[in-house]
């Protein structure tokens, strides 16, 4: 059983991606290009982290056809996306929308970065006060010996 | 019988590991030399037992002993020998056994080569190493035993997923594991240093080569995996931000940061507690990576729940290892002495800044990978986090890092001179901006994505900046006649840095061009029909059936022409494996300086012809060359005299030679 889970995981990742069949494609290259770009951001709902563009699953194929039908009907990209989200929920978007439940996801990296920078800033300020303090005691004979050995090793 | 010997050897190894985890620590605390001395022989014995177990499992696979459940589930008599052996680590149980085998091998290596290590540090590090062993051995024996028997044994096995039957993937997991487990050395030494309450340049000098070796192996593993994905998955993608990939990328990012901060500890005796923290975090990511991929938790939280024993054990191990070390760190790190002083504008400062960016990057990948799980667990709804998120958040973090990367090696330690660095780099900046403009013009302005110019500018900035730094180090302009001699005398670690940084620049070119300008042609192609792809004429000449060892294939023959002349014949295959019955595609790839022609044959169309997928993937080889330069740079740096001194046996000889 356990093995099945793992293999399923790998298979999902490793299905040869023979998605997007010629029969599905739109005759107008510009429209087809839009469909491909949209497809990259839509998740194949039955797959492990694959877009409908990469997936061989039937459901992905259905979604690809829906996207193309909406484009043919004259929808803008946003309208197509909204059309799919209305039916399948946010889960279908590989780039999660910015809202309350994804706040931590979108702001997390920024908060982490600012937090890390402020820690570094604090470190430098603390350093300054340490630098103003009296100099450290001289090296002990043992440390002197070590230093000499290290300098010798590095060939100086 | 042999399987039982393997099983028994694992139990013995667990017993030895428990002794090794406890006795030397007590000995070090109470200053009892004989107790401390247990660590060395114990690590040798532990390795011996685990090697016996691993050998037993390999034997079961090679002889196709299907009475062993693990073999029956993952192997097949028809499989070529390479994949029988590779099948050992192609599954959860076997891969964990490989993991502990490598772990014990490294422990043994410390006891073997670590003769000049301070005895307290060495025996504590070996004890910590043994604690990790205890955790993993218990996990294997209690929840994931590869030696369980099947009654009655099946006539033949289930086989290995054919997509995994590939040389690239046969060697991918061992390299990854060598990398993951290699970081356990830095971890064990970090914990040992915390226990001792002392981190110095000598510590860093020992830890650096191990970290570097682990980093090289992990880089190899990731590049191999990426390369495999590129040529097997059939549409020319090479990185998917899949959780499984992220699992290996997080320790790589943290390990890269560790590698650089360890330089500061060694050279300047600063950033010590930060380096210790990074060592813990890097190994934490390695543990997480091992478990994320193998536990099935990523498929859904429920996979975890259906197999609670394994899941709970994994969580417990992670909490103990990471939580325990963080607690120890919180207790001991504040007491650690502050090291050398430096201003924010200095090489240390630049390395620290890049460390912050790397760490934030790793944390971002972690957040994005685990967020769907967290959201599900907290009932925030089902969320997907895919490539568009990572590209939007991770890449902007890496851009400033690349900018600092070019300048940092030119800065002096302690207090750098920003104006001086700028005066050396302003021409590089001008050329980088010029390149951006040219790229923008060549792609037809807004006909391509806006970021291509930025990508190329960063690559030129880093690549050229690295070369300028090299030219200055060997005084190419000031004294060209002596430059060659200087180049030869340059420390190997400097050459390693130059090559690796240049490799990143080459990689950025591949990344940018292949993401932006791939051209794709999907169509039904009739025999004799020609399609133009990336300036090549691709003509389908025919499709024939070809038998393989454990599959049958439809092999297409394409004739490739350029300017009316035939330049190559390409033969992609569509294979159908017998056990398990699954189709795979084998793309035909023709690599060149400007990119790859990538040809895939699909199904027969009843209306005549075949579905063909033809791609021109620009600059893909640059990715592999960049990756190879990273590995090469790492290897050259590893061969530096300083590290050889770190590797004791020869180090002593070198020191004696220096004295003489």
Molecular structure report:
The complex is a heterodimer of chains A (156) and B (660). With 156 residues, chain A is mainly alpha-helical. Chain A has two domains: 2-97, Cytochrome C biogenesis protein (Helicase, Ruva Protein, domain 3), CATH 1.10.8; 101-153, no CATH class. Chain A is 61% helix and 0% strand. Chain A has helices at residues 2-14, 29-40, 58-72, 77-88, 103-132, 141-153. In chain A, α2 (29-40) crosses α3 (58-72) and α3 (58-72) packs across α4 (77-88). Chain A starts with a helix and ends with a helix. Residues 1-17 of chain A have low confidence and may be disordered. Chain B has 660 residues and is an alpha+beta fold. In chain B, the strands form two sheets. In chain B, strands 2, 3, 4, 5, 6 and 7 form a six-stranded antiparallel beta sheet that branches. In chain B, strands 1-10-9-8 form a four-stranded antiparallel beta sheet. Chain B folds into three domains: 1-160, no CATH class; 169-411, no CATH class; 519-621, no CATH class. At the A-B interface, α1, α5 and α6 of A face α9, α14, α15, β1 and β7 of B.
Given the C-alpha coordinates, what overall shape of chain B results? globular
N- and C-termini, Cα separation of chain B: 57 Å
Within the CATH hierarchy, at the fold level, what is the topology of the largest domain in chain A? Helicase, Ruva Protein, domain 3
How many beta-strand elements of chain A?
A: 0
Percent helix range of chain B: 55-70%
Residues in helix, % of chain A: 55-70%
Structural class of chain B: alpha+beta
Identify the quaternary structure here: heterodimer
Q: State the helix count of chain B.
A: 22
Mean pLDDT of chain B: 88
General shape of chain A: elongated
Count of beta strands of chain B: 10
Annotated CATH homologous superfamily of the largest domain in chain A: Cytochrome C biogenesis protein
Task: Name the pair of protein chains with the most residues at their interface, and give those residue counts.
Answer: A-B, 61 and 77 residues
């Amino acid at each position: 059983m356990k093995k099945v889970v793992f293999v399923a995981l790998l298979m999902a990742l490793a299905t040869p991606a023979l998605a997007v069949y010629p029969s599905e494609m739109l005759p107008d290259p510009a429209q087809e290009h839009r469909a491909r770009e949209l497809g990259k951001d839509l998740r194949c709902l039955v797959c492990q982290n694959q877009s409908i563009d990469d997936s061989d699953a039937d459901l992905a194929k259905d979604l690809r056809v829906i996207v193309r039908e909406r484009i043919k009907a004259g929808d803008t990209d946003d309208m197509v996306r909204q059309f799919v989200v209305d039916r399948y929920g946010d889960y279908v978007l590989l780039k999660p929308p910015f809202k309350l439940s994804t706040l931590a996801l979108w702001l997390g990296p920024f908060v982490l970065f600012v937090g890390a920078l402020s820690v570094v800033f604090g470190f430098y300020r603390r350093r300054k006060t340490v630098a103003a303090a009296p100099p450290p005691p001289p090296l002990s004979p043992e440390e002197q010996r070590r230093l000499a050995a290290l300098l010798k090793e590095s060939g100086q | 019988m042999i399987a039982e010997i393997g099983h028994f050897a694992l139990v013995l190894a667990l017993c030895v590991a428990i002794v090794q985890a406890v006795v030397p620590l007590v000995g070090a605390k109470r200053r009892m030399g004989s107790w401390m001395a247990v660590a060395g022989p114990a690590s040798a014995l532990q390795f011996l037992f685990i090697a016996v177990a691993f050998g037993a499992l390999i034997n079961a696979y090679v002889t196709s002993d299907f009475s062993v459940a693990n073999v029956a589930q993952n192997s097949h008599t028809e499989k070529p020998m390479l994949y029988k052996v590779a099948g050992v680590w192609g599954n959860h149980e076997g891969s964990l056994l490989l993991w502990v085998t490598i772990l014990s091998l490294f422990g043994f290596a410390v006891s073997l080569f670590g003769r000049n290590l301070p005895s307290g540090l060495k025996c504590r590090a070996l004890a910590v190493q043994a604690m990790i062993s205890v955790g993993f051995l218990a996990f294997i024996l209690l929840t994931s035993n590869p030696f369980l028997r099947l009654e009655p044994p099946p006539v033949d096995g289930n086989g290995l997923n054919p997509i995994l039957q590939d040389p690239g993937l046969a060697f991918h997991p061992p390299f990854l594991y060598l990398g993951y487990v290699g970081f356990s050395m830095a971890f064990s030494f970090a914990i040992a240093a915390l226990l001792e309450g002392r981190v110095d340049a000598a510590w860093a000098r020992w830890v650096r080569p191990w970290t570097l070796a682990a980093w090289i192996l992990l880089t190899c593993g990731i590049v191999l995996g990426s390369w495999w994905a590129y040529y097997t998955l059939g549409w020319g993608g090479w990185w998917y931000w899949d959780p499984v990939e992220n699992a290996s990328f997080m320790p790589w990012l943290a390990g890269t940061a560790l590698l650089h901060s360890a330089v500061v500890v060694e050279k300047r005796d600063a950033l010590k507690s930060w380096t210790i923290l990074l060592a813990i975090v890097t190994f934490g990511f390695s543990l997480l990576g091992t478990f994320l991929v193998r536990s099935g938790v990523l498929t859904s939280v429920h996979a975890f729940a259906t197999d609670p024993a394994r899941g709970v054990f994994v969580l417990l191990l992670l909490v103990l290892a990471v939580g325990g070390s963080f607690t120890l760190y919180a207790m001991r790190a504040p007491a650690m002495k502050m090291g050398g002083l430096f201003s924010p504008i200095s090489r240390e400062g630049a390395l620290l800044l890049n460390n912050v960016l790397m760490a934030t990057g790793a944390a971002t990948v972690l957040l994005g990978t685990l967020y769907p799980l967290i959201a599900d667990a907290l009932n925030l709804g089902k969320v997907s986090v895919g490539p568009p998120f990572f590209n939007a958040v991770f890449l902007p973090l890496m851009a400033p890092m690349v900018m600092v990367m070019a300048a940092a090696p030119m800065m002096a330690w302690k207090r750098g001179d920003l104006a001086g660095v700028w005066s050396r780099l302003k021409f590089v900046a001008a050329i980088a901006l010029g390149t951006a403009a040219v790229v923008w013009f060549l792609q037809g302005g807004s006909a391509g994505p806006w970021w291509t110019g930025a990508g190329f500018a960063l690559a030129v900035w880093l690549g050229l900046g690295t070369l300028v730094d090299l030219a200055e180090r060997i005084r190419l302009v000031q004294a060209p006649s002596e430059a060659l001699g200087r180049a030869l005398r340059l420390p190997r670690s400097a050459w390693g840095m130059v090559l690796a940084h240049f490799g990143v620049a080459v990689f950025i070119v591949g990344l940018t061009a292949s993401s932006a300008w791939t051209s794709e042609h999907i169509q039904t192609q009739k025999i004799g029909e020609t399609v133009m792809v990336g300036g090549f004429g691709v003509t389908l000449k025919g499709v024939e059936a070809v038998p393989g060892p454990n599959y049958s294939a439809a092999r297409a023959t394409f004739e490739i022409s350029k300017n009316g002349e035939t330049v190559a014949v390409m033969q992609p295959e569509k294979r159908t494996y017998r056990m398990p019955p699954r189709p795979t595609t084998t793309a035909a790839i023709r690599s060149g300086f400007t990119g790859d022609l990538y040809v895939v044959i699909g199904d027969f169309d009843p209306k005549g012809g075949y579905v063909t997928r033809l791609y021109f993937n620009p600059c893909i080889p640059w990715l592999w060359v960049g990756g190879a330069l990273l590995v090469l740079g790492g290897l050259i740096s590893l061969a530096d005299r300083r590290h050889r001194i770190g590797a004791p046996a020869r180090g002593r000889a070198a020191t004696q030679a220096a004295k003489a």
